[in-house]
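U6 small nuclear RNA (adenine-(43)-N(6))-methyltransferase
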Amino acid sequence: MALNKSMHPRNRYKDKPPDFAYLASKYPDFQQHVHTSLTGKPIVNFKEPEAVRALTCTLLKEDFGLTIEIPLERLIPTVPLRLNYIHWVEDLIDGQKQPRRGIDIGTGASCIYPLLGATMNGWYFLATEVDDICFDYATKNVEQNNLSDLVKVVKVPQKTLLMDALKEETEMVYDFCMCNPPFFANQLEAKGVNSRNSRRPPPSSVNTGGVTEIMAEGGELEFVKRIIHDSLQLKKPLPLSSFDLCSKVHARLLAANTSNRYSLVNMDSPFCRWYSCMLGKKCSLAPLKEELRKQGVPKVTHTEFCQGRTMRWALAWSFYDDVVVPSPPSKKCKLEKARKPLSFTMPEAGLKELQAKASALGCTCRSPVDSLTVLVEKTLTELRVLHKRVPCKKEEQSLFLTAVENTWIHGRQKRREQKRQLRELPRAPHCAGTTSQTTVTAGAPETSPTSQNQLTTAENSSSQDENAESKSTPADEPGKEVTESMTGEQKEAPEKVTGEDVDMESSTCTETGQEADLKETPAAASETPSKQPVSPGTVKHFLFKCLLNVIQEQSDVVIEMHWVEGLNRDLMNQLCTYLKNTLLKTVAKS
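Predicted structure tokens:
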């Protein structure tokens, strides 16, 4: 029963659904429709009309002491859903301290709304019905439950709603009007051919309603619009003949002697305090609310009814100024399900290597948790992920992380680009120095025309190189520009050039001042954040925030990352994978 948690708070079936096993053991008529699933759970096939009828009759008998009969060829109501409507009407009329009087338009064969309202709250009902079979069964159900003094069933002509049905009841002020209108406009809609989304699964229960119960001209939308127009007509004072006037005086005297069983209408007051209806299609709600707005109805509210996999929508309106309008259901934000944190485990076998690495970084703690925390903090600092330690349990460490930029993806591509740039920078001075050395060496041999030619060639090349140097090395301006541009790129780009990378690429040539600056630049860049630390909580623009926990579990250490907020959980997943791979590489190198 997927939607039971959204049922009316007072619905008895909200937290305690019917116990099929218990009901089957107590009621033999219901027992034959209860089967056992493969898991041993008692179930009922709601596509069998006999099973649905048996369940409805059993629940009414068990929980409300009502005995009813329903023909299979007429609509079989579900008790929890109808109970939702009754409880909502209770909210509309604000309590049940004094006798209340209501109208049920199209009461059906079960007459379920009047029977429930009269049994639970002592309400008086005028129930109307157009179908002969439904009228006979409704009358019989009222009589056999001894509720004839509270419920009056009236047979009305086809297409009759309020105006014609209440000719003899114009002296009464009703507290509410209920209606479960026919949902469909034709047979195709009733069968779901042109009204049901093809992606939706088929209905889980059977529809046994008669033609007048499930179909009406224009469907439920036009049906309720007619009720709205009738309510507007009943809002106006009704003309009275002399006979009606005498009847009115007689009714007043009668009401005075019957303990306020009936409330007499004020000629300037509307006929009913609350009009309501239950809708089977959500798409009908907005047009009806718009119709009420156009007609200037002052008080309008709506709600939702939930039961099992069934949703219904209810609409109510009133012309009275003193009624209390219940708040419609709030548009609840879909609460994100509590998700498990992202986590990975560092086994005991690799903790010694990680502790040794942490000790080399200056960590004096012997706890594996503290050692891993130091290594994680080092990696986060390199990635420029803001982090700070927060209070946590004993034998744990917690870091609050704020990622401002994505610096953990495409690492291999970034390292290649760094190496390529480093290879290109020292080539110009490196080649010039080699050429000059070659020139000096070539000048040593004497005699031999061949040697002389080689010397001449070497001198020519040397002079050309010197000219090239003279053009390119005044104050080494181009080199400085490249170095400055590289430094700017390193400040802006996520990757960092480490000293190890520079040493690997420096080859055998002598370091120039520019290369020394290039080595010092990353160190200076890495020191900049430490001089001006930024609190993770003060950052306005970020990718995501999360809580990282380092936990000791027996002999292993587990690292968990709990999502707090941000753009995308995939980014946290990427960072988690990066941290895991970094720690595993540290273990492998050791």
